[in-house]
Design goal:
Strand 4 and strand 5 form a beta hairpin. About 25% of the residues lie in helices and about 35% in strands. It is of the alpha+beta class. The chain has a six-stranded antiparallel β-sheet, with helices on both faces. Strands 6-8-7 form a three-stranded antiparallel β-sheet. The termini are close together.
Length: about 180
């Protein structure tokens, strides 16, 4: 599955993305804001991740346009979420892409995929309390805070407070706003 927005292409990760993925994600500033990223992150981690068997996850690399060729700036995915029931959306961006609206733009595209491509009715998400920018992105996407819980941060090896959030997809999109995607 692929999706296009005015500034971005969302597409699956490919094995040949390993070096670009490593360069984009291997920053403490990224790793310490994510729950399941090992640290330090190496090209071996990227290669293993990109070669994993397809499962119930929908994970898309975020490529920004504007230069001589699209550049990998992050990823966004929807994963089964056993702890809260249903599915969870998560994302990350490389630090030089922060503050430009890319996460919100990619998030809107993924909400269309969740609703129209996957038939989901509800999504969960969360952000570590020391990452309020991610909370602002989720709020712009229509998520509402449901509480706070401790979540483990693999990179730091500790539990951190995490705001939990939820979205009914019928509240997020209208029938006049179909997702632009291709299988």
């Amino acid at each position: 599955m692929f999706a296009r927005t005015p500034r971005l292409t969302l597409r699956p990760g490919w094995p040949e993305d390993a070096a670009a993925l490593t360069a984009a994600i291997a920053h403490e500033a990224v790793a310490f804001k994510l729950a399941r990223l090992p640290w330090p992150y190496t090209i071996d981690h990227a290669t293993e991740w990109l070669n994993r068997p397809a499962g119930a996850d929908v994970v898309m690399h975020i490529l920004a346009h504007g230069g001589p060729s699209p550049r990998l700036i992050g990823a966004i995915g929807i994963h089964p979420d056993d702890s809260h029931g249903g599915h969870e959306i998560g994302y990350w961006l490389t630090p030089d892409a922060w503050g430009r609206g890319y996460a919100t733009e990619a998030g809107r595209a993924m909400l269309g995929i969740a609703r129209y491509g996957m038939g989901l009715k509800r999504l969960h998400s969360g952000h570590f309390m020391d990452n309020p920018a991610s909370g602002r992105v989720l709020t712009k996407l229509g998520f509402r805070t449901t509480g706070v819980e401790l979540r483990h941060c693999l990179a730091l090896g500790i539990d951190k407070p995490c705001a939990t959030m939820e979205l009914a997809l019928s509240d997020a999109l209208s029938e006049d706003d179909p997702a632009r995607m291709a299988a």
